[in-house]
Records
---
Amino acid sequence: MVKVAKKKGKFYITTPIYYVNDQPHVGHAYTTIAADILARWHRLKGEQVLFLVGTDEHGEKIEAAAARAGKVPQEFVDEIVGRFKDVWKKLNISYDDFARTTEKRHENVVSKLIEKINENGDIYKGEYEGWFCVPDESFWTDLQLKNGKCPECGREVQKVKEEAYFFRLSKYQEKLLKFYEKNPEFLSPKLRSQEIINRVKGGLKDLCITRVALKWGIPFPLDKKYVDYVWFEALVIYISALGWLSKDFKKFWPADIHLVGKEINWFHAVIWPAMLFSAGIEPPKKVYAHGWWTVDGRKMSKSIGNVVNPIEVAEKYSTDVLRYFLIREIPFGEDGDYTEKALIARINGELVADLGNLIYRVLSLAEKFDGKFVGKDEISKKLNLKKIDEHMERLELTAALLEIWNFIHAVNKYITDNEPWKLKGKELANVLYNILESCRIISILIYPFMPETAERTALQLGVKLGSLKDCKFSKFKGKVKKGGYLFNKIEISE
Ligand code: MSP
């Protein structure tokens, strides 16, 4: 059996902290599920994991959403945060900490960090003149606008001309480029790194870091008539949640992975490390920017009415179906399209036909057998655990899932080739041993992706769900007890 690469120690992974102006949708669920899968995988490896999620609660957009709902901002955000927590519970998100930007622990660290950046000479007062996109909370120059609209989301922008404080982002251009060169894993995946490098090479403008007209924000510590620009404070969540300046900070910092969607790569891969350089803090090890989902070929939007609610999908099909589909449907990192038809095809073709039937068949045969499941390993060479782990380490989640599926296919083939229904005695015991041990190992491997299904499988096999070190053939000690099907076939009405 091939050994999994040893990497004992800690693993700190974060998702973006989502804006609380609206309900969580399938896009938010996607990043959070992917991070959950990685967190669970690293726990299976025996590492000490910190999985951080949270919410971004300040800024103009949220202030406006609260006003529309006829609520004061704090009351409004508390309500939406509750919805995010409910969705994460339903989707089986095993986060260790949920951090909010309205918490004192965050506000204090933000102010201290800004003071530190100022002490290092990287903040100055000037005048900002340009454009601001409220939905994206982003500043743009004339040249950057596309047809007079926000180049990122295509929506209307506001003209802004005000006295403001700036962060000397331009000072960090060379340092950033050197850092990317020395740490080729930092900008991930590869398909997105060049875009960032080119933009940084093209020159960096200093960043406006205050808003004057806004009330709903953290007071700017150097001049209380301003509040902090929301991105300049939101990024700080990744260190405020760890208690920057406390003695425990180094236990998890630097972060191993900031997992984000591609549209906010710039903030994480450029602005954030520059802020950290300025404050003398080590940058994270990796920023991974995954792709975007469209729905039925179109951008997901309220006005089109095609926003996919993850709770509805989980209730209709199951949480594990949603988790599996999102990771399996598009190669992790790339863009892709969500359709219910594709989801049903994957349920019927893969979850029911490959996995569900395998477990059901194995347990039916095993239950009828009254001897001991003893035998000699004939199948473990079909399992490439090292490859699965390498894919997981490189965040190739879809490829890892496919490699697990290769083993599932191999076990199905082993059953077909050996026709255990025609066997008796020792020969039958041997085949049953092989397929039961395989299913036990499969239950561990699918756990990060489909935790409930993994637990149900282990329960039916009568074994305790193991960790990665248990993914080797040994004695089968389970007391099998067949339950229902793991997945139900979906009939498609025309
Ligand atoms: N508040 C900022 C993040 C601050 S992090 C310090 C923000 N919030 S957001 O609510 O707009 O969430 C954006 C993130 O949601 C994306 O980066 C991505 O992780 C996820 N997605 C939102 N829509 C998505 C798709 N249609 N497809 C894939 N992921 C998407 O930006």
---
Amino acid sequence: MAIYRRLDPERLPHHVAIIMDGNGRWAGKRSLKRFLGHQQGAESVQYVVETASRIGLPWLTLYAFSLENNLRRPKSEVNFLMRLLKMYLNNNVRRMNDNNVRIQYIGRTDDLPDEVRERMQWAAEATQRNTGTVLTLALNYGARSELMDAFRGLCAEVQSGQLKLNDVTEQDIQRHLYTAHMPDPDLLIRTSGEMRISNYLLWQIAYTEIYVTSRLWPDFRGIHMLEAIEDYQRRERRYGGLADGTESDDVASLPANQLVG
Ligand code: IPE
Ligand code: IPE
Ligand code: MG
């Protein structure tokens, strides 16, 4: 792929997170039922996972099902998504192994149906020895509940005297998140054009670069992720500092009447 050759191998992101949105709209545009959009979306997942593995991306985190989706969508759609997840795992674990991909999950997965959790655990165990891309599926995930769970864990440590309140650091919060062992995303992609975060990884995306495409998730392929990465490589990350090459003002050399105050 020509675009792959244009990428700077020294500046590949370590962690790409994706909000996979637009399955319903994809189906609607074709006068199909929403569930067919979800089914097509599951195909996109495997294409993108395999591209991630091919370029050696260490972490890929996909927002597959939010807590709010679980609460606010009709039971029939939620049930279909659960069936689709089971099918996705059944059909793709072999390909994950062929591609050296390890799968894991974040979110309130304990609240998912037993037979879904059983399949999830099976897939995690079947791929646990793979050393390539780690595919993290966010399932029944909400960032505010993740933070709430983290604060509860942290408060328990303070209450028991293990940790002093004044000693609490950002790292202490970080190690209580579902993503404790993961780096923060470098790049967040959202498909379908919506300019919002929808309760995804709120703590972790503090300095993440954001890329929104109008392409609907079922039409999204590996090459579109590479386009997003190419765009990312043109960005300058500042983390609150100055732009590259900017010289700082030499305040001492300014005449006193040009100084504020
Ligand atoms: C994303 O597609 C998949 C899930 C949220 C599970 P949507 O189902 O949100 O599709 P739109 O946004 O209605 O098009
Ligand atoms: C975000 O998409 C959740 C997932 C992609 C799983 P939504 O379709 O649920 O987000 P909103 O409702 O448009 O914010
Ligand atoms: Mg949506």
---
Amino acid sequence: MKLKWLGHSCFIIEGSDRIIIDPFITGNPLAPVKAEEIDVDIVAITHGHGDHLGDGIQIAKRCGATMVAIHEIAQYAASKGVKAEGINMGGGVKVGDTEIIMTPAWHSSGLDETNFAISTSPAGLIIKSDKTIYHAGDTCLFYDMKLIGELYNPDVALLPIGGRYTMDARQAAMAAEWIKAGIAIPMHYNTFDVIREEPEKFKKLAEEKGIKVLILEPGEEVEI
Ligand code: NI
Ligand code: MN
């Protein structure tokens, strides 16, 4: 299975289905592609902030992809003509050969152009394809990450490390230890000045706890 980082919290997973998570491409200075070049079957969204929902609605419509998001965002997307499956914490849905399950995340969330008016819950996602991936979304460190590790045994954990709005490198290293994924990959850093962080700092701290860390460059693809 292939995993590609498009900068910020955006990843493309290619197993039997092609899935994009948090497609913030337009306006993302690290994005190595244009939103129009994306071709996927599933668009998975952790929360409604513009740097996560991003180009999701346009991509889902153009590709005829299914959007998977929390109930309210799925309803909003459906009102814009998107084929959408709403889920919520602890539940999930199977789309094609991929199962997507929603986990909690401690953060806030608005919705697209109504960002300030409509509040929705933020989330993390477990993506069960050929491998199991945990995308933590935007979140602080919370002890139930240990439970997420025990419940879903992820092969890969995608963790925010940029601080300010999410965990920083030190907290994310602790998260990686609790989740116990085979590989931890940092995200949500260095996109903007306010979330500057050294991924090597995360790598060093997590590896001291026995967790393997992979630092990707935007556009880099790895076989997992
Ligand atoms: Ni956010
Ligand atoms: Mn964010």
---
Amino acid sequence: MIVILKPNAPQDKVQTLIHQLESQRLTVHFSQGVNSTLLGLVGDTASVDIDHLLADDAVADVKRISEPYKLANRRFHPLDTTISVEGREIGPKTFQVIAGPCSVESQEQLANVAQSVKESGAGFLRGGAFKPRTSPYSFQGLEEKGIELLLEAKRLTGLPIVTEIMSDSQIDEFQQVDIIQVGARNMQNFRLLKALGHLNKPILLKRGLSNTIEEWLMSAEYIMAGGNEQIILCERGIRTFETALRNNLDLSAVPLVKRLSHLPIIIDPSHAAGMAWMVQPLARAAIAAGADGLMVEVHNNPKKALCDGAQSLNPEEFHLLMEDVKRRVAFEGREM
Ligand code: PEP
Ligand code: MN
């Protein structure tokens, strides 16, 4: 980290600042140039508060030269992380598909979808019990009953379940959930992230609608800082100026996250475009970009879905998608 001092910063103020930085176990290199004076900070700068430094009378600007996240950073953890859930691995050697309805609607609907996605080769069942809807008048999910139905579908099919948590007050209700999803709208719910950091359970962390990759990795860092290092990142499309799609799938996030972090990353092509017919091409692109898996919305009757019907595949469409995915994944020498 580099601290640029104000041209006329008084000597005593600079000395006080240097002492203060050294007391944070940082080594400070003072460099006097013709036009500017710099302090080079070496050490663990992740916990340095930039706003605090900028408020100092002697400081003109502060520049980070290394990433502010440590535990999620590949620099300090060169090997890829593989996450194990009930004997299934999510990481670079495998390609996992999580599939199921946007929201759990009934016992019959979930059992039907769970059976069919399992037969097509999905490794995990998804389904929202608590739904973060833009309108308070839209279907909000079956809530606790939805979790019960997911557990029942797990008993029926053996598929581990993935479902979204909305608040730290719900943690007890999620004890038997295999992977807890943090939705795009909660990516920066720091209180929730901190609480999830105390669990010993994988967290599927979706990228926020308008969040940078650094902010996303900092959210992963929040969970990891509490001791839970089992994070699966999920790119689900971001907001841009484009209105023809629900979101824009940022596929460049896959190679970039793989370079910056050791955490696995999967793609959600359903929320990315918002249109069922685009799921397959985006899924193919995700495999080509090096993603570790997919999360796909599947509904037994998309036209009647209470949530996200336009982007949901029916079981037959999902089956065809999986045949295509299996061929491509096999070609890359990865397991499903
Ligand atoms: C979902 O997975 O159904 C969902 C609400 O996703 P996101 O948080 O990406 O909008
Ligand atoms: Mn959805």
